[in-house]
């Protein structure tokens, strides 16, 4: 084949290749590279933000606790500020008062715990002899305290090993205490600045927002202050009433450490809704059981009756304007908060839930509810169900066959 023939055969191939190269459908869209770069930057930014969130999770939790405490203290600080107190000294006075109450609570409970341990150690020989008498009489054995001590001497090695392990963990316990002290000082510092410089802090936030958004943010902040402060003060009042009632009952039944036990029940019952009274009441029942079964039984009856009195008489009247939440919703909120943030989440759950409920109620449109038997309660006098209205007869459509029948 000649050279001219080969060139003649290759020319159409070059034209087809050039045609395919210039075909717009085979070209890369101009927006695709920019979209790929934007996607890569978005994924990288999200990864960096998530890494920073994980690294700063402890600090963010401390800031959240500080914000909650600042919201809870601000009503008292505002009350002092309206009476010519500067916000700095007013915040310091309120924080010192709250810290004093916390120290008193821990001191009283600590003294009760030490006293119970000492009493238990003093009663241990008599309890051991009584237990041995019961075992010997029931199972026809002949154990004696000296025999029991000789049998227990074989486990002394395990006791020494456990003691050495506890001594080895002293350094770890000391570091944990130092970490708790540092976190407490950090929370106190942030709380002081958030509360003392509250107006300046809110002004700085609103300065970067449009006017309409400023109004919504300030409204949400006001609701949060009202609900959080109301939650703390209403719970404090309920705790005071609960502690006083249990102190009277424990004193009448001659249960030791009545003041400390009443304070324990009063505080614990108000920050764990619905079941807090029973959880806090377990300790007074156990202490009363040392005195005998009847005092423990009467304490259990009193705790149960007081819980019903508080749920249906006291709490609706005290928390009607501060924290109007159904007990089941409140208990579920505490469980959800504990699952998300642990103990701090359980403490923050109720005021956060009440604030969200009030804030959303301002924007949820409500309608008139139609009458229906499922929406009516039973008659309290006759305990009979209301009459069920019959369904209206179907109206035939115009032009149907029933018109002529």
TrEMBL record:
InterPro entries per UniProt: AI-2E-like
Basic and acidic residues bias: start-end ranges: 1-24
Superkingdom of the organism of origin: Bacteria
Membrane topology: Multi-pass membrane protein
Entry annotated with the keyword Cell membrane: yes
GO biological process, alphabetically ordered: transmembrane transport
UniProt name for this protein: Putative PurR-regulated permease PerM
